[in-house]
């Protein structure tokens, strides 16, 4: 991972670390590596989105473990030990700075440590489409609804999950949401 970290400019790496700290503090639902990946690509740097997600997981693990063990900035840097020789200098500077500034703010409660983790819903988008024809059928005129759910997995990575439904399926889906809303109003 250290060789992949060296590909990421300091400002983008700092932003990634900041988002991870915010996620660990429950201020944002997750780290949007897809959006960060697009901006890194736009700046002309070639890195794989999967590698960026792995780096985010490693840094998240590093910060959460350091918070659990109440490590000071110097303890964190010392604990990195062998990694100091392989991690790029700019990455170490960012980790040191971010941990020094915000590391103490991470609150890892005992309940949070023992709680089973599940993904967190972030956003939903939908669009209505009509399939007019295909190479096997000249006249379809088939309406469908495409739904995209934005979900933050337990590690904080934000991913999009898309699926299509027929209009009756979407109407049933909508009815179920209305039922959930009605039940929530009684709580």
UniProtKB/TrEMBL annotation:
Belongs to the COMM domain-containing protein 6 family. Signal peptide: none annotated. PANTHER family: COMM DOMAIN-CONTAINING PROTEIN 4-8 FAMILY MEMBER, COMM DOMAIN-CONTAINING PROTEIN 6. Pfam families: COMM_domain, COMM_HN. Residues 120-187 form the COMM domain. PROSITE patterns: COMM. Scaffold protein in the commander complex that is essential for endosomal recycling of transmembrane cargos; the commander complex is composed of the CCC subcomplex and the retriever subcomplex. May modulate activity of cullin-RING E3 ubiquitin ligase (CRL) complexes. Down-regulates activation of NF-kappa-B. Inhibits TNF-induced NFKB1 activation. One of its GO terms (molecular function) is NF-kappaB binding. It comes from Buceros rhinoceros silvestris. This is COMM domain-containing protein 6. It comes from the Eukaryota.
């Amino acid at each position: 991972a250290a060789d992949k970290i060296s590909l990421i400019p300091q400002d983008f790496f700092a932003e990634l670390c900041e988002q991870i700290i915010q996620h660990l503090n429950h201020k944002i639902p997750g780290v949007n590596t897809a959006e960060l990946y697009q901006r890194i690509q736009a700046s002309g740097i070639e890195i794989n989105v999967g590698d960026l997600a792995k780096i985010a997981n490693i840094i998240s693990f590093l910060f959460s473990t350091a918070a659990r063990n109440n490590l000071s900035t110097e303890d964190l840097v010392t604990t990195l030990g062998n990694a100091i020789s392989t991690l790029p200098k700019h990455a170490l500077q960012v980790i040191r700075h971010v941990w020094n500034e915000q590391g103490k703010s991470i609150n890892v409660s005992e309940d949070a440590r023992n709680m089973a983790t599940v993904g967190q819903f972030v956003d939903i988008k939908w669009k209505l489409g009509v399939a007019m024809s295909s190479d096997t059928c000249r006249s379809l005129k088939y309406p469908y609804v495409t739904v995209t759910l934005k979900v933050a997995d337990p590690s904080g990575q934000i991913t999009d999950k898309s699926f299509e439904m027929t209009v009756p399926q979407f109407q049933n889906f909508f009815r179920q949401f209305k039922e959930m809303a009605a039940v929530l109003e009684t709580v």
